[in-house]
Design a protein that fits this description.
Elements lengths: L10 E6 L3 H16 L3 E2 L6 E6 L4 H17 L4 E6 H5 L1 H7 L5 E3 L7 H11 L5 E3 L23 E6 L10 H5 L3 E2 L2 H13 L4 E6 L14 H9 L6 E4 L9 H9 L6 E3 L7 H7 L5 H14 L4 E8 L6 H14 L3 E6 L17 H24 L5 E12 L2 E7 L5 E6 L9 E9 L4 E5 L5
Parallel strand pairs: 1-2, 1-3, 3-4, 4-5, 5-6, 7-9, 9-10, 11-12, 12-13, 16-18
Antiparallel strand pairs: 7-8, 14-15, 14-17, 15-16, 17-18
Helix pairs in contact: 8-9, 9-11, 12-13
The structure holds iron/sulfur cluster (SF4).
Length: 448
């Protein structure tokens, strides 16, 4: 790479797409690069790392676009594409994105600094593909401790899945389930909270089955262990497949004030016929039972979800049924996705693919329902005292405004006196007005 010399620090830029697991992996790669003497670029970088996503056609397209953008930004840069899209579509990337020099999949990223050194020492621009097949049984790849600038860091604790939902490419990208050593999880969480982070998000491909491969622990056990750490912080669970929710987990969440009363449970469809064709191992009745149990144990709990609309074979009646089920569940928020056929997945070959215009209309209907339910949830927060972790502080017309999320994942904005709250601290806010995006309130002052 022209201009590359061991004298001058080599700079890098990491571009992260996709899920919280990707965010955690990018933070770990950042830690490893800085450990190895690479420096974050202020502007143009010598090395670009695109941590890619393959979950939808749009995500794959964005990954390619970021690689092209990197090459435009610095024609001499080393462009590396890592992650899920690299793992499942490296042939396509080779064909469509000549801008990429090195393709790495979802294994081997812990060796990123060495891979870069080896590549740079070759002094050539030969394309390298370092994608390894996933094996039936695999060890968890420890990627080292992460470097975070954001307020609410994500800690990855699990990787892989063996559910084989018919639409899902993640299972092909991530391999079979494997869990991180609980000691290393505790070490990373302790390091992050000692560094002042006040909320830790735990993430995995199939979080709820954490520990199944280790035999002597579980997500519930891990939460108990982390709840004993002596710091003022809280734990939030990232997306949790309904198949992984146990009574023990809900009970541990309800017992520990440190664990946020918030569940992100991807339902995917409210219609049993569609759930069956998706290969989801629960019915809408079983999903509702989990939500009811969670609400009985944690009345303040918020339950948000993912819904796929326009799955092959979905009739108008199925769509109506799905909408009604979502309404009955009174979910607190929805992420709605139009079904996106993914290569190498069974559903991509199913008959009765839904026409794009019908899919589009159904997405709009489901999104509108999601916003209505979220607004209802925010209205239910009125008058309540919410523990907000301040993430943003803005000064406008001489008035300081704070913003952050409550324990049940309500976005809260509030006026404050600058001395009252700093970024990264908790403040009690009384919710006073509901909006489509969250609530506005005022800081609960002592004696109020
Ligand atoms: S549970 Fe299903 S959707 Fe989730 S990662 Fe596994 S196969 Fe994919």
């Amino acid at each position: 790479m022209p201009g590359y010399s061991m004298e001058k620090p080599v700079t890098y830029k990491i571009i992260t797409l996709g899920c919280p697991v990707n965010q955690a992996e990018s933070a770990a790669m950042e830690g490893a690069l800085q450990e190895a003497g690479f420096q974050p670029a202020e502007e143009t970088a010598d090395i670009y790392i695109i941590n890619s996503c393959a979950v939808t056609k749009v995500a794959a397209r964005k990954s390619r676009k970021e690689a092209r953008q990197a090459r435009r930004e610095n024609p001499h840069a080393l462009v590396i594409l890592v992650g899920c899209y690299g793992q499942v579509e490296h042939e396509e990337i080779k064909e469509l994105v000549p801008e990429v020099d090195v393709i790495i999949g979802t294994t081997g990223r812990s060796r990123l600094p060495q891979i870069i050194d080896e590549y740079l020492k070759t002094g050539t621009r030969q394309r390298e593909v370092r994608v390894q097949k996933h094996f039936r049984v695999e060890q968890y790849e420890e990627m080292g401790l992460s470097r975070y600038s954001r307020q609410r860091p994500v800690v990855k604790i699990q990787e892989g899945c063996d559910e084989f939902c018919t639409y899902c490419v993640v299972v092909l990208a991530r391999g079979t389930p494997r869990s991180r050593d609980p000691e290393l999880v505790e070490k990373e969480v302790a390091q992050l909270v000692a560094a002042g982070h006040r909320e830790i998000i735990l993430a995995g491909t199939h979080l709820g089955i954490y520990g199944r491969d280790l035999g002597d622990t579980s997500l519930a056990q891990l939460l108990k262990r982390l709840s004993n750490l002596e710091y003022p912080f809280r734990i939030r669970l990232s997306s949790l497949e309904p198949m992984g929710v146990t009574d023990e987990l809900l009970e541990v969440m309800a017992e520990s004030p440190r664990i946020c009363p918030h569940l992100y449970l991807p339902l995917q469809s409210g219609c049993n016929r569609t759930l069956k064709r998706m290969g989801r191992r629960y019915t809408i009745e079983e999903f509702s039972a989990i939500v009811e149990k969670a609400r009985a144990l944690m009345p303040e709990v918020s339950v948000i979800s993912d819904i796929i609309v326009g799955f092959p074979g979905e009739t108008e009646e199925d769509h109506r049924e799905s909408m009604e089920a979502v309404r009955r569940l009174r979910l607190s928020g929805l992420h709605v996705f139009p079904y996106s056929p993914r290569p190498k997945t069974p559903a991509a070959r199913y008959p009765n693919q839904v026409r794009p215009d019908i899919k589009k209309r159904r997405v709009e209907e489901m999104k509108a329902l999601g916003e209505e339910l979220a607004f209802q949830f925010y209205q239910e927060q009125m008058g309540k005292e919410l523990q907000v972790l301040v993430e943003k502080v803005k000064q406008q017309d001489g008035v300081a405004r704070g913003e952050g999320f409550s324990e049940n994942y309500t976005l809260v904005r509030f006026l404050m006196d600058r001395r009252e709250a700093a970024k990264g601290s908790f403040v009690p806010v009384k919710a006073e007005k509901a909006y489509r995006w969250g609530v506005e309130g005022s800081i609960k002052r002592v004696g109020q």
